[in-house]
Amino acid sequence: MPRKVDFLVIGSGIAGLTFATKAKTHGEVLILTKKNKADSNTNYAQGGIASVFGDDDSFARHIADTEKAGEGLSHPDAVKIMVTSGPPLVQELYELGCRFSTDEGSAFELGKEGGHTRRRIVHAKDFTGYEIERVLLESAKKSGIVISENEIALDLIVKDNECLGIYYLDAITKKIDTIYADATVLATGGAGQVYLHTTNPPIATGDGIAMAYRAGADIANMEFVQFHPTSVYNLQIEGRSFLISEAVRGEGGILKTRDGAPFMDKYSPSGNLAPRDIVARACVSEMLRTKSKYVLLDISHREADFIKNRFPTIYETCLKWGIDITRESIPVVPAAHYTCGGIRVNTWAESSVPRLFALGECACTGVHGANRLASNSLLEALVFAARAAERLKTTKTLTASKILKHDMPGKTGPNFTLQVKELMDQHVNVIRTQKGLEHAREVIQGLEDQFEDGIHLINAESRNIVNVARLIIESALRRKESRGLHYITEYAEKDSTLGKDTIINTNIVSN
Ligand code: FAD
Ligand code: SIN
């Protein structure tokens, strides 16, 4: 008989671990994760978690800042839930042992990032994600939750429009097997690896989004790929571009052209702390104008001791690569950073397929709209993971007759990963054109046609990357306006009649 659990979680980042530790009290939880358990976007988060703790702050302000960044597409109900439920969950992480930075009075030391009108970023210096991952893994271990490493979810088992579990590959034995569950929870993270230049680690191949799409779930707002303005030029560490946190600009860092001229005031009254889409486009425009492959980020005017203490990871990593940020500017370029779209879910993390839940970066709760406000993603993952666990206190058990042994010979597909990454960097980047997107669609269509239907054992990630690229391009072609993170030169203005989510599923693949 195939294995069956109450709650099957795919992914061991903040979303999967938060859900698991909370759902453990009302059912058996199993986490599968495709590499080492700490391999996640979460582990690399620098800036922090946005949450209302400041005396001069309020929920209304955080809501307003989030919705302003979202450019008319944020869902007000989801934003309100995220903002108002956040502080106790952040406090809980601290009480679990997360070493968040505090000031003398032992209140959280609050950082500032683009688009926030108040200091509200709770952080552990510049290694917030590492701390969160560490503490949640410890907590999961203490609760006796099994985290099974090197298990790659390949596809969802869907029957009669209901998700029954997954097919997965044991990366060590190379065998495909099935696990059934009353609820399957995708917490597989983002899809930055669809691009050549990305801050995301190699696990971020959009697997959950691609699996859910193939299973017929609604996928929303994939055109809104967030490019972080400041990754170090020409510095790839273990498959990811090294990030310089927005918190560096929050502490006075200034963007300059290669010849040392500050430029952000030309682009926004908020200058260096304008929302990320504006800053990324400004960087690209200045790189084009000055015919340079990068712009500069300068924090060297701040005290060396302050920089070393506040940004130890960034300081030490840059130094190792020959850049002393206390004395010189850092050459930076935008890189793909965050997937605002994903598996469409309601405010309880339920997807359009019964028994299938999605959390964290692979989900689209509607919070971010057309542009995510800095440091809102850890918060979103935390809040909606806790809500999903709450929702699953009452789940109907899968009837035994639905649990069948599926013998699925795995297929071998081609590896198009590099080709897709180059295509996406060239044609589906910060500034897009209709012609470029149409070309990209044609190429991707040709690649997609070369994968057979069925479960893919070899090059499963490459197939996911092709599927996700297709979703991004298709969504971008549908949005005939520029809004938030989606900028297309032929439709350079926002069109107020197009203020709706872009939704794609396997029944609707083009206009
Ligand atoms: P992840 O943490 O990415 O976890 C996904 C998990 O799923 C991993 O364990 C992975 O191995 C597993 N997985 C994926 N596919 C499969 C599969 N097929 N089978 C089995 N397992 C699978 N956000 C903020 O709010 N504040 C910040 O300061 C911040 N800084 C960031 C800095 C960097 C460099 C990066 C890359 C992102 C940053 N973000 C930040 C974004 C934030 O870190 C992520 O959005 C968030 O951590 C996502 O959490 P998650 O649990 O959804 O996914
Ligand atoms: C950063 O530290 O700049 C990343 C913050 C985020 O992605 O929210």
What's the arrangement of secondary structure elements?
Elements: E1 3-10, H1 14-23, E2 29-32, E3 49-50, H2 59-69, H3 76-96, E4 110-111, E5 121-122, H4 128-142, E6 146-148, E7 151-159, E8 162-170, E9 175-186, H5 207-214, E10 219-220, E11 225-237, E12 240-243, H6 246-250, E13 254-256, H7 276-289, E14 295-298, H8 304-310, H9 312-320, E15 330-339, E16 342-344, E17 356-358, E18 363-364, H10 377-391, E19 411-412, H11 417-427, H12 434-448, E20 456-458, H13 460-478, E21 503-504
Parallel strand pairs: 1-2, 1-9, 2-6, 9-17, 16-18, 19-20
Antiparallel strand pairs: 3-5, 4-5, 7-8, 8-9, 10-16, 10-21, 11-12, 11-15, 13-14, 14-15
Helix pairs in contact: 1-4, 1-10, 2-3, 3-10, 5-13, 8-9, 11-12, 12-13
The structure holds flavin-adenine dinucleotide and succinic acid.
Flavin-adenine dinucleotide binds next to helix 1, helix 4, strand 7 and helix 10.
